[in-house]
Amino acid sequence: MDKETQDKLKKAAGIEAAQLIRDGMVAGLGTGSTVKFLVDELGRRTREEGLKFTGVTTSRRTQEQAEGYGIKIIDIDDADHIDITIDGADEVDKDFNGIKGGGAALLWEKIVAVNSNKIVWIVDRSKVVDTIGAFPLPVEVIPFGAGHVIAQFKKRGYKPVLRLDAQGEPVRTDEKNYIVDLHLGRIENPKELAGDLITTVGVVEHGLFLNMVDTVIVGDPAGPRVMQNPDKA
Ligand SMILES: O=C[C@H](O)[C@H](O)[C@H](O)COP(=O)(O)O
């Protein structure tokens, strides 16, 4: 799929999902290029329709964009609940297992997600896959001793690559940690892998979001379609 088509589908999914936000809600706002379209639409609704809701953001980037539209953003610890979180994803399978973190925001995204009453993902249709893992799995790692964590991943056959920015420096997350991308190809047993990663000392969090999402809105050329997680119905 070319980038122009993909962006169109992302935008359509973002606009569709923006309808889920209503006056008075506390809404988690994800991160990434798809969420950017969502926030643009929420900004439009705020300005043109007088929509009034409170946001909890999953990255500094999203916070800046939302505040630029005059959307009220509060700290997650000042939110006594989050009604709904809308976020992007890098891949999702039919069991509603997904990979996130392509934009290095997975840690805050997971914290916001687990504290939300409902989770919605917005993706273009190229991200709906049979088996996750073609997209390199992001893992957030503490910089101290990161070389040893990477060496362990190598030994386990995870094909780790430290993510670098355009200047060749390690990418830093909003928590100033590193991202190590695991080039796994296919993840046959995501639960086992998640357990292995999270018990590795030096790992803060990983981008496997397993059966957490309630609803996925898929941007499709025929129009956005909804995948409802039967386990969350
Ligand atoms: O860290 C970033 C997030 O998990 C994004 O939601 C994910 O990478 C999807 O991003 P995009 O909408 O840009 O494809």
UniProtKB/TrEMBL annotation:
<dbReference type="InterPro" id="IPR037171">
    <property type="entry name" value="NagB/RpiA_transferase-like"/>
</dbReference>
<keyword id="KW-0413">Isomerase</keyword>
<dbReference type="GO" id="GO:0009052">
    <property type="term" value="P:pentose-phosphate shunt, non-oxidative branch"/>
</dbReference>
<dbReference type="GO" id="GO:0004751">
    <property type="term" value="F:ribose-5-phosphate isomerase activity"/>
</dbReference>
<comment type="similarity">
    <text>Belongs to the ribose 5-phosphate isomerase family.</text>
</comment>
<feature type="binding site">
    <location>
        <begin position="31"/>
        <end position="34"/>
    </location>
    <ligand>
        <name>substrate</name>
    </ligand>
</feature>
<dbReference type="InterPro" id="IPR004788">
    <property type="entry name" value="Ribose5P_isomerase_type_A"/>
</dbReference>
<comment type="function">
    <text>Catalyzes the reversible conversion of ribose-5-phosphate to ribulose 5-phosphate.</text>
</comment>
<comment type="pathway">
    <text>Carbohydrate degradation; pentose phosphate pathway; D-ribose 5-phosphate from D-ribulose 5-phosphate (non-oxidative stage): step 1/1.</text>
</comment>
<dbReference type="InterPro" id="IPR020672">
    <property type="entry name" value="Ribose5P_isomerase_typA_subgr"/>
</dbReference>
<feature type="binding site">
    <location>
        <position position="127"/>
    </location>
    <ligand>
        <name>substrate</name>
    </ligand>
</feature>
<feature type="active site" description="Proton acceptor">
    <location>
        <position position="109"/>
    </location>
</feature>
<dbReference type="GO" id="GO:0005829">
    <property type="term" value="C:cytosol"/>
</dbReference>
<dbReference type="GO" id="GO:0006014">
    <property type="term" value="P:D-ribose metabolic process"/>
</dbReference>
<comment type="subunit">
    <text>Homodimer.</text>
</comment>
<feature type="binding site">
    <location>
        <begin position="87"/>
        <end position="90"/>
    </location>
    <ligand>
        <name>substrate</name>
    </ligand>
</feature>
<protein>
    <recommendedName>
        <fullName>Ribose-5-phosphate isomerase A</fullName>
        <ecNumber>5.3.1.6</ecNumber>
    </recommendedName>
</protein>
<feature type="binding site">
    <location>
        <begin position="100"/>
        <end position="103"/>
    </location>
    <ligand>
        <name>substrate</name>
    </ligand>
</feature>
<dbReference type="Pfam" id="PF06026">
    <property type="entry name" value="Rib_5-P_isom_A"/>
</dbReference>
